[in-house]
Amino acid sequence: MQETELQTFDAVVIGGGPSGATAAWDLARSGRSVLLLDRAGRVKPCGGAIPPRLIAEFEIPQSLIVARITSARMVAPSRTSVDIPIDNGYVGMVDRDKFDAWLRARAVAAGAELRIGTFSAVERAGKGPAIVAYRSADATGAMTLKKVAARAIIGADGAVSSVARQEIPGGERPAYVFAYHEIIKSPVPIEGAPATNFDPLRCDVIYQGTTSPDFYCWVFPHGATTSVGTGSAKKGFSLKDAVARVRADNGLTESETIRREGAPIPLKPLRRWDNGRDVVLAGDAAGVVAPASGEGIYYAMLGGRLAAEAAETFLATGNVRALRQARQKFMRLHGRVFWVLGLLQYFWYHTDKRREQFVKICRDRDVQKLTFDAYMNKELVKTRPLAHIRILFKDLAHLMGFARA
């Protein structure tokens, strides 16, 4: 087949997670021809928490919400804990296998074409559209190389993005931690059976160096199932052993394991998301996972939407500078939040002594209120300046060792 005979799409979106599926949905709804390329059989390890703003902003049906969390428990290295109620609301929990599949199906319903395959390379010849090469199974099951032409490309293929490595300056060296979790059957209380430290309406966030030397562990209920996981950038640290310890500490060792998953999680946004020609990144490929919390679904979907907007403007005008808009808009909206959370992770996650102090800070109602306001609304709350000042001095007192236990 000659290159001139290749099927041409306005946009090829590489990666069918929340970011890529959202970008494909938005572009298809605007009337663009879209190919959504996704790998088969992959589910990202993720706690599955989504805030109310995501549910409303991205029109998520209640049928996908498998649990409604009304409190969080922060657990210190000493195993002392702080329970934080979620006032006037809840955090929705989703199963990523069903959630991601629904997002892809919605993009297809809007007009996008979904193909299962693995991205291989972007090829260029002359001044025409870029050629996206990918490997996909043929009718016999054999993997074959296939190609399509693309006027614009959105790379949403994860933290270690092949698109970023090939096309984006600096994209070959992303900073990330590696996350691992096990999806287990949620325990059901049985009279006479050993008690568990498990609440189906509470998310547990565990700050212990023995189970994560530089991040945290989690126990996030999903209704009938629960995600138990951890993350770390430390080479040689056994994530599987850490999850086994978390399960043992919480009475979850005997719970049936349904599946195990691992993947890199980016630590900070890349300095550049576009190649100045026809490619823009979104989601984990762009590095948009919140420091300290590791939250990524909302930011991934927003990143996908902003990448789609930038691609649409580029397609309509031919102005390659439009591709910069995705990063510019994202950082204008959330750069400050990422900076604050990055400082929090840097100061509090490095030693158990600091982790202990951090959990103590979480007892403070000002901290609790502002933390959940920021999480639920996805912005730093500006209406309570005195509370911000109080928290600043409390943080400094704990950091310097002046505060009492």
Question: Could you provide a short overview of the structure?
Answer:
By secondary structure, this protein is α/β, with parallel strands linked by helices.
Keywords:
25% strand; 10 helices; 17 strands; 33% helix; 7-stranded mixed β-sheet; disordered C terminus; 405 residues; alpha/beta
Helix content: 25-40%
Task: Indicate the overall shape.
Answer: globular
- List unreliable stretches of 5+ residues: 391-405
Oligomeric state, counting identical vs distinct chains: single chain
Structural class, by secondary structure, is alpha/beta
Describe the largest sheet. Answer: 7 strands, mixed
Write the SSE topology:
Blueprint: E1 8-14, H1 18-29, E2 34-38, E3 49-50, H2 52-57, E4 67-69, E5 71-75, E6 81-85, E7 91-93, H3 96-109, E8 113-116, E9 118-123, E10 130-137, E11 143-155, H4 162-167, E12 176-185, E13 202-206, E14 217-222, E15 225-232, H5 239-249, E16 257-266, E17 279-281, H6 297-317, H7 325-348, H8 352-361, H9 365-377, H10 385-400
Parallel strand pairs: 1-2, 1-11, 2-8, 5-13, 11-17
Antiparallel strand pairs: 3-7, 4-7, 5-6, 9-10, 10-11, 12-15, 12-16, 13-14, 14-15
Helix pairs in contact: 1-3, 1-6, 6-7, 8-10
